[in-house]
Amino acid sequence: MAKNILIRDLDKNDLEWIKEATPSGMSQNEFIKKIIHNTKKKKSSFSTFNNDDVPETIFAKLPFKYIDLFAGIGGFRSGLTPYGGKCVFSSEWDKYSALTYKAWYNDDNIYENDIRDINIKKMIPDHDILCAGFPCQPFSLAGVSKKQSLGIAHGFDDVKQGNLFHSIMKIVDIKKPPVIFLENVKNLISHDKGNTWKTIKKEIESRGYLLFSKIINANYCVPQSRQRIYIVCFDTKIFGSEISFDFPEQTVNQNLTLANILSDKPDTKYMLSDKLWLYLQNYAKKHKEKGNGFGFGLNTKDSVCRTMSARYYKDGSEILIKQLRWKNPRRLTPEEAKLLMGFNDHYAILQGHNKGFPQVVSDTQAYRQFGNAVVPKVIEDIAQNIINLMAETILNRSAGNLLKT
Ligand SMILES: C[S@@+](CC[C@H](N)C(=O)[O-])C[C@H]1O[C@@H](n2cnc3c(N)ncnc32)[C@H](O)[C@@H]1O
Fold this sequence. Notes:
It contains 15 helices and ten strands.
């Protein structure tokens, strides 16, 4: 004779899970009975897409693995860490960026050669998310005009760097990651009258991915205008063809200004010399008369500055800070530049650095690395929605597995 049992004190999360995982048309009671029935018959399996072991990171929420291509100083890695997951492969050929990466993430396993030379099958492990902020010079406004003036090919025709997107596609073909997460300059959309973007979309979609993209200005989380394109692609074989993915909405915080990142007592060595300051003023005047460019960018502590670029180390002209004590403005210190890019204590502590991310390279290299990086908070916010979608998909799949007889 059938007997009723009443389960008391069920954890709130378990109750939530039962509610969400119960397929429509089935009562929660029937669902639980079915799970018990099937569990008796066979061990149910809960697995992430490519998961076969437990995540290693501190605040693991969902077991997932990712790779960090063109890793730089790890904007993707810092941004993904709060969600747990395990970085199973990183690639960066610049020895100074690799030095910073190793010191910041306590990870010596970085592949330091040209990613185009790698034996993908042998050296790149399976992963759930492929992350890549691939080099932007072939597509960026500054990069393109410099290359045009020198009569050098740009975009995909740039022999040195333009084909790096194709090297990502080679990895996609072999590893078939469920999610691809890319970042680049916003000019990627308009480069070569939109043809570059068309090619990128076609290459990704023809491989069975649904592509979502958005230009996001990081000024909602750092006091800098930094517009970048973020591209998130889902393998339709895993996620289905009706994927509802939204990029996060951002609200600009009016109180977020350079005051948040400027130090009280910067070293005098960051002050501009009379000679450089005069040169920058004359240069700006000349260009203004010709009707082009802004020249230098002069800020107070109440400003939100322009985009910090990889050339900041040259003269710092795009982000100068007015001084009360000195007659000439100064450039940002490397510490301030790091904070301007959002590599703050929150992310440093997650990697075990209690006094912030350390500087292990020269000022020149540090500025270059910051100017090239992606802001971790933007990655974190987008990743939240990616991971929610992955969790939902796994939940449905697990529920499906549990129901299979
Ligand atoms: C735009 S930056 C990416 C920065 C990174 N997202 C971050 O947060 O720091 C591109 C990086 O790709 C690296 N790179 C360029 N070509 C490469 C290649 N062929 N193989 C490996 N790394 C390469 C560069 O050294 C640079 O650090």
